[in-house]
Amino acid sequence: MSDEANKGLLSPLRRKLLMGMAAVPAMTMLPRGAFAQAPATSAVNTTGLAVTDTEVTVGILHSATGTMAISETGSIQAEKLAIEQINAAGGVLGRKIKFIQEDGASDWPTFAEKAKKLLVNDKVAAIMGCWTSASRKAVLPVVEQYNGMLYYPTFYEGLEQSKNVIYTGQEATQQILAGLNWIAKEKGAKSFFFIGSDYIWPRTSNKIARKHVENVLKGKVVGEEYYPLGNTQFNSVINKIKLTKPDVIFTDVVGGSNVAFYKQLKAAGIDLSKQALLTISVTEDEIDGIGGENIAGAYACMKYFQSLDNANNKAFVSAFKKMWGEKTVIGDVTQAAYLGPWLWKLTVEKAGSFDVDKIAAASPGVEFKGAPEGYVRIHENHHLWSKTRVGRAKLDGQFELIYETADLVEPDPFPKGYQ
Amino acid sequence: MFGDYSLGDLGSIFVMQGFAGLILFSVYVLMALGLAIIFGQMGVINMAHGEFMILGAYVTWMTSNFFQSYLPSLFSGYFFLAMILAFVASGALGMLVEWVLIRHLYKRPLDTLLATWGLSLMLQQAYRSVFGAREVGVELPQWMLGSLHVTDSIEVPINGVFVMCLTVLITISVAYVLYMSRWGRQVRAVVQNRIMAGAVGINTEKVDRYTFGLGCGIAGVAGSAFTMIGSTGPTSGQLYIVDTFLVVVFGGAASLLGTIASAFSISQTQSTLEFFMSGSMAKVLTLLAVVGILMLRPQGLFALKVRK
């Protein structure tokens, strides 16, 4: 679908939206009964979701405890911020969003159980949640069986598409290819050393990266190494890197291992201002633990950096810090989590209904111009069109934007020639 | 895989790989020493060992923050004070835990497994509530970063050397305390025969408490040292616990020498294999070898001769 066609389709909606927004200040002054102007509940909710005349309930499902709490805390914060902002702007179809937060506790069966509870007992209209692929895979059959709607924020390996899920992070080809192209062109890189944690996301991502390096960039992969999750000793692989002298170290190490990897890399005398390192797993959140001095100079390839210089992002960052404290940092996934409630709201308003089937059908083509990362749009495959960016880590733990794709990159969860 | 490299390259890689093995060895000894005392001498299966280490790491983080804010001129030396504080904090918590929990379980060693596992979950959540779920970055003084430049291709990580020296120092002190001092004799007497030890006038409760405290304190120092090479977060302790038990059990529970020998053989196998194959495969083969040897020698590498 071309841009023109999209705009044509959406213009009535946009007019309605603008009218709605203009009415917001007036509405807040009206007495409570005035909300009756909003469409009748029986019309916008035909499937028995938790929607009343004044409220609609959504679920937030992340790990607030357990090992993943490190990563998922930011997502919870972003989703709460988005919900608060949407409510302050008048809610969705005249209804305030109320949220029920459940704790997946870093345990995948618990995620599935809590998702079922949210859908069956609480009848939530949508779930913002999950972080790891494992938790999403556990929740997926539940949202499909009970016909729920899941907004999933993390960049992930692709190879999945569901009517009941909107993927607000990037899938692997979207995230990786542009970064590899850039580093091959900019640094003349020919040889690559891959190192990752040993589970599905790094393995799939590296497979895609390897195909791209070998078939498209005509380069060479001189090493590909995996370490168990939580591994803390990387001296041997660092020696191997020194031996093979790759142009680029390409990493998707995650979690606590990340900290160990960069600290030991620095201790081994590898200077990231001279040795190019491209990571797809380190956001501002991770740098908090790694320490800016250990990773300064490394390149990261994703769609969002806290330092992005645009009006949306500045407003987002200051609102986030106002709500959660001056010291909090915002990484790629946190921003993607922030998109979830907003995209849902826009889709509900486009569909004119909270019904999951109508939302799923209305999702393709929904655009969000207020996204901190800039304009995004939902693709037919329920992933987002988004730009890919390369940033360089600085001493203060922020990224400096080095490169961004000129156009939005099309999401391609089942990439041909990369499997 | 070596075809493309010159002899000089290969030589320096072998030297560096040797260092990598030695550093891993020191790390293993350091993290296993505390457990070897608690598990080996007292028979308590302390699943919360990792959390005592992380307490040491958090103490180091707080000390570093304190020095940065109030005594920036002394920042370069804060690490030594941090290690002492880590020892005191973890040791004190250990003694408290012994008094509240462990002393009721000496006759039921398997229950200590469950109790200390519960304790580890509680401590993790406590860290999460107090320090936040995110990892914290411990800033190190400048002189501890980077590497010693030996030749153009040989670089030795300074933090690795630091860990090695620390390990030697602590091992010698522990050996001295356990085998040369009066208190160490009391500890060994209690281990061998609690009732007789009590009968000859040893305060066994006090000995137990101090032994447990010492083990936890050493865990704290290890945690403090590991802020140089690893992460500091509520669940970081879990990263170490399996390896720690592996080293202690493989070495033979009641033997300090066994712990050292076991740490040496596991670390050397691991780091050599890691060089020739992927990290995950290296781990699998190392574990297989350990399982195989334990099947032949269930009591571990070194075991005290006990009359049954």
TrEMBL record, chain A:
It comes from Bradyrhizobium nitroreducens. InterPro entries: ABC_urea-bd_UrtA (IPR017777), Peripla_BP_I (IPR028082), TAT_signal (IPR006311). This is ABC transporter substrate-binding protein. Pfam families: Peripla_BP_5 (PF13433). The lineage of its organism: Bacteria, Pseudomonadati, Pseudomonadota, Alphaproteobacteria, Hyphomicrobiales. Keywords: Signal. Residues 1-36 form the signal peptide. The keyword Transport does not apply.
From TrEMBL, chain B:
It is a multi-pass membrane protein. It is found in: Cell membrane. GO terms for molecular function: transmembrane transporter activity. Keywords: Amino-acid transport, Cell membrane, Membrane, Transmembrane, Transmembrane helix, Transport. GO terms for biological process: amino acid transport. Its main location: membrane. The keyword Membrane applies. GO terms for cellular component: plasma membrane. Belongs to the binding-protein-dependent transport system permease family. LivHM subfamily. This is Urea ABC transporter permease. The lineage of its organism: Bacteria, Pseudomonadati, Pseudomonadota, Alphaproteobacteria, Hyphomicrobiales.
